[in-house]
Amino acid sequence: MPILSDQIDPRSAAYQANAAHMLELLAEHDRQLAIANAGGGEKYVARHRQRGKLLIRERIQLLIDPDSAFLELSPLAAWGTDFPVGAGTVTGIGVIEGVECMITGNDSTVRGGTSGLAGVRKSLRALEIAIENRLPFISLTESGGADLPHQSDIFIPGGKTFHDITTLSAMGVPTMSIVFGSSTAGGAYQPGMSDYVVMIDKRSKVFLGGPPLVKMATGEESDDESLGGAEMHARVSGLADYFATDEFDAIRIGRQIMRRINHRKLGPGPRGAGRAPHYSPEQLLGIPSADLKVPFDPRDVIARIVDESDFDEFKPLYGSSLVTGYAEIHGYNVGILANHRGVLFNEESQKAAQFIQLANQTDTPLVFLQNTTGYMVGKQYEQRGIVKDGSKMINAVSNSSVPHLTINMGASYGAGNYGMCGRPFGPRLLFTWPHAKTAVMGPQQLAGVLSIVARQSAESMGRPFDEEADAQMRAAVEAQIERESLAPFMTGKLYDDGIIDPRDTRTVLGIALSVVHNNVIRGRHGDGFGVFRM
After folding, report:
1. Largest Cα–Cα distance in the chain?
2. Is 0.85 surpassed by the pTM of this model?
3. Which of 112, 190, 295, 311 is the Cys-Cys partner for 144 at CB 3.0 to 4.6 Å?
4. pLDDT digit string (tens) for 410-440?
5. Are strands 332-339 and 322-329 parallel, antiparallel or unpaired?
């Protein structure tokens, strides 16, 4: 087997500095996760418990299979905004009675479970993943509806939630709503559009308008139970399919439903159980450079995430700034594209386009390991056709129909983000390492471009150039771009599906590969053309 060699010296100064930097970022990430996990804070959590209710993550933990993993998605959504970190919603992938499911739930300790714009985007992203990968969709519902002061931002995009739930059902993918509390107004349609609905005695309330609104609209006097209680919906309206005595009973029923739905994967599955790499994933702390300008060899990463560190490299002597090849991760066959020295030249672009076509010919999912500053600029490369060659690579990524999984393990700048399957190009899942950055270009380069343009403008108009103002502008722009390129900022905007510990990369990719195999794995081929050699 082509086993990758161990090139890492954990005693070196560079490795130690990189690892220390990564651990510092991971500690800060853990602090932010703790804020999200704390929900609305001690006061609202205590009030929630006084009402005899479980917290959202406790509900999820009871719902999924014992000792199984829950891959939480976008846990730091809304980071850096006025809305609490986490956006008052928990979404993620878990296994229920052996079936991989997309699970979402409202955290009613955060603003009463209302949804802001980030919460809506987070829910829609969960539904997008469920649709792409045929994942049963389980909603743990306790929602105050839209965050009304921001309704203009929420109302229109939020409506797609209902569209997507019914789309899943039309695909034959089960949807379920377990109602733990009040689900009013637009929130009432969540159970209304689900295939299966579980409601809890004296807890669940589902109505378009509560008693005060009904009184104002019609003059009719009513109470919560007769208007939208669980017993009424179980006995009278028929909205409730299952009537639970308490939260634990509702979760038991939810698991029972999943045990009976006969949901099967359509993908081929793994070749085997998968064997561990030869080298420790702990070393992924010190491999990526703390200074993104310093390249590192992605083979050192690949050696610690693929089965038995076995990597069959494709075109190793051509376009060496991009590493391509085949491997298995937890038994799943994959093609890997990984940036080496950052810049994508003509040869790398051609190599990538050919490799992507070959992966589609053999129905092989692709893993993109990003660390790129973009496509090479300059007269020599323009004359050699870097625009055409880069476009070939981007075209290949755009039209590839095998599943794509992306890890940003460093820089993701410019059109390199597109060519290496960034968010606009629809990877099934995209995760980021804590030190990674994403932007149109590096802060110094962007500020420098603005400075050059301003200087040329002044010269063309015959005006003196203000060097002091230019220095201030450059400093301000560099600070802004640096802040906006950081991983927490990008994940707060849901431009990825979460920040992960590099040591967990193999596990996360293994879960992701299992998820994508719920659907058919088929590349774009058989349409009259073979592979165009680049």
Report:
1. 83
2. yes
3. 112
4. 999 999 999 999 999 999 999 999 999 999 8
5. antiparallel
